[in-house]
Structure formats: structure tokens, C-alpha cells
């Protein structure tokens, strides 16, 4: 099928739709699901994000996309994460180790915060055809998965922060460095 290209407006923090719990997808390999996935990928790419969740474009379904694309020249040291479309995901920590690192969010443009996340996780879910996905991830990959899946339970990264003194404007925190939101 030929999906039409559609870049959507990304909802910003303060919009109540970002705080809802998303519903599981019940039917796979449908035109509607493939179109949603295409729209999420187009919108993520256009915004140069590391990931995007369906609630961020106002769709209350458990669908996230993340990773993929060529290495970002602005992020030469950022590890590559495989382009992944994950439907109905479940994320489970592996071990009890957490680490703090900076995060941004396309729904919170211009800001960054220091967020604790599980260092290693296992995530399972389905692809848009209904085939199972099961992976283990660590570090940045694990962080992206946790951030995106949090959008499916109405959580934005500041709600995970322990110290709001470590929330700030990107251009103040990292002067002279062009950073993408994710
Ligand atoms: Ni986000």
C-alpha cells in the first residue's frame, strides 16, 4: 500500500492528551495502523527526534517509534539504535542499576533534564504486522525505550526527575552546542 506522507503537529506539555494512558492495539496489519506508523516516522524525522510515541500526535494507542537513520553528525558519539516500531510494549528492568543522563522531549522543546533510568532493560512487544519483538538493551538504547514507553502511561520525563534543579534550557545548559530534542 502507498502511505501518504503526513507530518503531524507534536503536542506540547500542558496538553491533557499527553497525560492519558494509551490503549493497546487490538488489530495488526491494518491500513490504519500502517498509516499511524508512517506518520510517526515522518513526524519524528522532520523533528529530528530520537523517538516519538503515538500520544504525542494525539493518538491514544500503544505505539512508539525510535532509532534508525544515519549517524547524526551532531551526535558522533551517540550509539546507533536500530529503527524500531514497537506496538503494545512492556519494559522490564534487568538488574537494579540506574543511571542519570540528560534527556529532551519533542513535547518539551528547548529544555533538558537529568533523568534516572534503568541501565539495562528487556522490552517486548509486537511490530505492526503482529510479529513479536523481544530485545535486551542498555545505556542510551534502554533510555530511549523507557522514555518513549513512558509516553504510553502519561509520563513526561520531568515527572521522573529526582532533582528539578537539573532541569534547564538547552542553550543555557549546553551553550554553543546544537542538540536535538527527543
Ligand atoms: Ni518524549
Task: Outline the fold blueprint.
Elements: H1 31-46, E1 51-53, E2 63-66, E3 84-93, E4 98-103, E5 111-118, E6 120-126, E7 132-138, H2 139-150, E8 167-169, H3 170-173
Antiparallel strand pairs: 1-2, 2-3, 3-6, 4-5, 5-8, 6-7
The protein binds nickel (II) ion.
Nickel (II) ion (NI) binds at residues 105-107, 147, 151.
Description:
18% of the residues lie in helices and 26% in strands. The protein is built from three helices and eight strands; from the N terminus they run H-E-E-E-E-E-E-E-H-E-H. It has helices spanning 31-46, 139-150, 170-173, and strands at residues 51-53, 63-66, 84-93, 98-103, 111-118, 120-126, 132-138, 167-169. The strands form two sheets. A five-stranded antiparallel beta sheet has the order 1-2-3-6-7, sandwiched between helices. Strands 4-5-8 form a three-stranded antiparallel beta sheet. Strand 4 and strand 5 (111-118) form a beta hairpin. The longest helix has 16 residues, at 31-46. The model has no long low-confidence stretch (mean pLDDT 93).
Amino acid at each position: 500500500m502507498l502511505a501518504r506522507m503526513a507530518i503531524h503537529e507534536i503536542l506540547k506539555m500542558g496538553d491533557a492528551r499527553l497525560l492519558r494512558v494509551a490503549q493497546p492495539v487490538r488489530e495488526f496489519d491494518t491500513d490504519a495502523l500502517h498509516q499511524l506508523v508512517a506518520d510517526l516516522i515522518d513526524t519524528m524525522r522532520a523533528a529530528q527526534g530520537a523517538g516519538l510515541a503515538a500520544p504525542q500526535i494525539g493518538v491514544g494507542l500503544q505505539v512508539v517509534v525510535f532509532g534508525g537513520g544515519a549517524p547524526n553528525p551532531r551526535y558522533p558519539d551517540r550509539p546507533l539504535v536500530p529503527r524500531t516500531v514497537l506496538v503494545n510494549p512492556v519494559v522490564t528492568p534487568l538488574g537494579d542499576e540506574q543511571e542519570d543522563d540528560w534527556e529532551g522531549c519533542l513535547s518539551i522543546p528547548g529544555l533538558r533534564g537529568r533523568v534516572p533510568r534503568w541501565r539495562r532493560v528487556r522490552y517486548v512487544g509486537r511490530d505492526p504486522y503482529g510479529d513479536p519483538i523481544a530485545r535486551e538493551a542498555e545505556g542510551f538504547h534502554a533510555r530511549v525505550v523507557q522514555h518513549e514507553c513512558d509516553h504510553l502511561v502519561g509520563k513526561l520525563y520531568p515527572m521522573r526527575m529526582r532533582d528539578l534543579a537539573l532541569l534547564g534550557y538547552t542553550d543555557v545548559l549546553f551553550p554553543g552546542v546544537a542538540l536535538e530534542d527527543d
